[in-house]
Amino acid sequence: MPADYFVPAKAVVVETEIKKSRFITWLAPVSSRAEALAFIQSIREKYPDATHHCTAFVAGAPHGGAAIACDDDGEPSGTAGKPMLNVLLHKGIGEIVAVVVRYFGGIRLGVGGLVRAYSAAVQSACEQLPLTRRVALLRGLVRCDYAQEQSVRHCMGQFHVTLLDCHYGDRVSLDIAVSSEYSSSLSAQLLTLTRGQVDVSWSEEAADITR
Questions:
Q1: In whole angstroms, what is the distance from residue 40 CA to residue 57 CA?
Q2: Cα dihedral 186, 189, 194, 198 sign
Q3: Where are the domains of the chain?
Q4: How confident is residue 71, by pLDDT bands cut at 50, 70 and 90?
Q5: Higher pLDDT pick, 123 / 60
Q6: Taking the complete model, does pTM exceed 0.85, yes or no?
Q7: Is domain 5-129 annotated with CATH 3.30.2000.30?
């Protein structure tokens, strides 16, 4: 089951100047490689006269399984895109794209200077980026009698359960999602509360919810 991680709450833009070069950094939320590439293209079109449009993105969870990529866009190899990506991964931010637009100011920064400049540009933008947490929850199904519904719902509220759906048939069926750390305790509490008359089953499917 995937771990929790942070994602951008909205896009931000931060401008810095280093030795007369302007660095305009955009950070934005993206959920796929296609979204990241589309955003990158939109920034290229917004600043068509810029010297470079260096990029990095993590289209998914930062701890593995995500589509990741970076591009130096004409800067010396490894001096822009990779340092930008390293900042994003080190901060544990997923579903994010970074674009640093550079207007050359006439003073060369050198290889080390470029690495520091692009890293600092993304670092500065990250400090102003509002974040939310992407929580991977375990899905479950709770079935109880009508007379037990109110007490069952109250119990679930104590475990920060998210109610995904509810069906009324011969019994009440509650489709829920809860952090895996609470699932065993919730099951035990519900069984105690209803004297074993509630049915609780868990799915291997995760429900990703932003909180």
A1: 10
A2: positive
A3: 5-129, 135-210
A4: very high
A5: 123
A6: no
A7: no
What would the pLDDT profile of 73-116 be if each residue is shown by its tens digit?
Answer: 999 999 999 999 999 999 999 999 999 999 999 999 999 999 99
Q: Whole-angstrom Cα distance, residue 21 to residue 187?
A: 59
User: By C-alpha distance, which of 69, 78, 70, 87 is closest to 123?
Assistant: 87
117 pLDDT above the threshold of 70: yes
Cα 15 to chain centroid, rounded: 23
DSSP assignment of 101-149:
EEE--S---HHHHHHHHHHHHHHHHHHT--EEEEEEEEEEEEEE-GGGH
Q: How far apart are CA 56 and CA 51, in angstroms?
A: 17
The CATH architecture one would assign to domain 135-210 is 2-Layer Sandwich (3.30)
